[in-house]
């Protein structure tokens, strides 16, 4: 296999890993950022129009015909898609992805196998007056935290109960979110890295629970327990390839939050900190091969800067961010003449260091130098 096609809303991180692994890479995606065109051999950008999923998949299927590739990777937003190709599809089974991505199904599964997790209910089924507050209200499926709401009392929950479709209510637990990245194959799994999630930092976004990046490795306690739990559930579910498991570390103990049966946003920080290539491991897993675990060589971090207000990207702004990309301190660089709407991501910054504190300080400095200057 020499050539892969990656389809998703944002494919840049997957394409970059595949390119470093020595593959020819084609991409069909929505954002079409400037640096993706430097990475991939050819890119097709699709509009995120208000069409149904079947129509969107049909249109993308037509675009796929222009490429000559050996294997398909369905990236963010398309892991459950069926494009009808007879070539290798390097993803988990779409029906399994649908189940595992359902937070209510996952809660029932974790209860069955005895793994500690936040109590979870369907929003439509709850009686607000019977709950202990605060609670979290989240989409039943999907990631990113952008739509998560902290609800303080039953009156608030009553107001929103009938306004959201396919949402869950979850026990609110204060703590730090961390994740384990794994490679799985043939009912076995190997942890390849741990990461701490960045969220709730006002210098990155005004959205309280939006996923805003990661620092790898995680140096909090319970890391070994996290790895063992993650490997056990991924093996039990018979997942394959690159997968992630999210945990909440709190004074009440360790809670399993989500299982992500796909490439994670931590892909690049895991690769940098542990000096490995996730895409090559992902491909090998489909032939039954698992990697050997390695130790982190440094700390690596990524920070996603969101627009505090609508931002117009002119040529100067795009060029300055693209210079950062060339210096390996930025990615997901928007083209000039692009309007970034409020609360949407603008760009991603990268930093590395010998400690977590040094890495986080570097991320904050480069973000503040950019957003507090005359760029935004």
From TrEMBL:
Entry keyword annotation includes Ligase: yes
GO molecular function: ATP binding; ligase activity; metal ion binding
Domain of life (superkingdom): Archaea
Cellular component GO terms held in the UniProt record: cytosol
Record-annotated ATP-grasp domain positions: 107-287
Pfam annotation, one family: ATP-grasp_3
Keyword Nucleotide-binding: yes
Keywords tagged on the record: ATP-binding, Ligase, Nucleotide-binding
Descriptive protein name: ATP-grasp domain protein
Source species of the chain: Candidatus Argoarchaeum ethanivorans
């Amino acid at each position: 296999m020499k050539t892969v096609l990656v389809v998703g809303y944002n494919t840049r991180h997957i394409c970059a890993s595949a390119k470093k692994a020595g593959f020819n890479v084609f991409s069909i995606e929505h954002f079409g950022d400037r640096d993706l065109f430097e990475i991939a051999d050819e890119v097709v950008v699709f509009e995120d129009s208000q069409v149904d999923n079947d129509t969107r998949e049909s249109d993308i299927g037509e675009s796929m015909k222009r490429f000559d590739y050996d294997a398909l990777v369905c990236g963010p937003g398309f892991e459950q898609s069926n494009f009808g190709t007879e070539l290798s599809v390097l993803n988990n089974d779409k029906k399994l992805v649908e189940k595992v991505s359902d937070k209510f199904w996952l809660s029932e599964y974790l209860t069955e196998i005895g793994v500690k997790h936040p109590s979870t209910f369907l929003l439509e089924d709850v009686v607000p007056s019977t709950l202990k507050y605060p609670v979290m209200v989240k989409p039943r499926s999907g990631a990113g935290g952008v739509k998560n709401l902290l609800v303080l009392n039953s009156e608030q929950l009553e107001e929103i109960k009938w306004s959201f479709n396919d949402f869950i209510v979850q026990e609110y637990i204060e703590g730090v979110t961390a994740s384990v990245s794994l490679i799985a194959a043939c009912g076995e799994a190997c942890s390849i890295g741990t990461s701490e999630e960045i969220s709730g930092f006002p210098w990155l976004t005004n959205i309280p629970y939006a996923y805003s990046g990661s620092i790898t490795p995680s140096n909090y306690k319970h890391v070994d327990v996290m790895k063992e739990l993650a490997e056990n559930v991924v093996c039990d579910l018979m997942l394959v390839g690159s997968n992630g498991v999210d945990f909440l570390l709190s004074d009440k103990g360790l809670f399993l939050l989500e299982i992500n049966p796909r490439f994670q946003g931590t892909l690049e920080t895991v690769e940098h900190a542990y000096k490995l290539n996730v895409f090559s491991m992902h491909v090998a897993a489909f032939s039954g091969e698992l990697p050997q675990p390695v130790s982190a060589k440094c700390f690596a971090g990524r920070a996603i800067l969101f627009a505090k207000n609508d931002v117009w990207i002119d040529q100067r702004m795009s060029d300055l961010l693209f210079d950062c990309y060339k210096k390996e301190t930025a990615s997901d660089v928007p083209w000039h003449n692009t309007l970034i709407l409020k609360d949407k991501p603008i760009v991603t910054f990268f930093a590395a260091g010998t400690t977590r504190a040094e890495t986080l300080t570097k991320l904050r400095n480069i973000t503040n130098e950019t957003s507090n200057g005359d760029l935004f």
